[in-house]
Amino acid sequence: MLRPVARVIIAAALLLAACAIAAQARPRIRRDFVATYPKTQGTKLDACVTCHATEDDTLNPYGEALKQATFDFKAIEKLDSDGDGVANRAEIDSLTFPGDPEDRPGARRDSTRADSTRHAPSRSDSATVKPKGEARPDTIKAPKNG
Ligand SMILES: [Ca+2]
């Protein structure tokens, strides 16, 4: 009776080890990216979406270029992987995504896009909400007599 239980425990331990190894694979590239471009540490570029279209394994144009360059970041700095007119290095220096043509230096992202959740809105993006109600008494002008 103990043997099947031991098998399950061993299988679970092996599965856990395999998952841990798989989880380490992508972050290593991300760590290498941040080591190559220290300015990106803790920014939106310090994330999987710098190379991936989403959080899955689909690569965006920058990720594809990086893969083809055997993960040599410097080799693809002069390329414009996403075709937005800005070279990858210039985008990284400006902290914009080199694999997303909608995100480039000076461009304002459309906050209605489905993938906008990967960017926290800045204070300037939030609309100013004016309180409803009557005009304040100090803004009401009394009619002039005469
Ligand atoms: Ca871009």
Automatic annotation (TrEMBL):
Superkingdom of origin organism: Bacteria
Keywords annotated in UniProt: Signal
Compositional bias ranges of the Basic and acidic residues kind: 101-118, 131-146
Keyword Signal annotated: yes
Residues annotated as signal peptide: 1-25
Stretch list, region Disordered: 84-146
Protein name, as recorded: EF-hand domain-containing protein
UniProt lineage: Bacteria, Candidatus Eiseniibacteriota
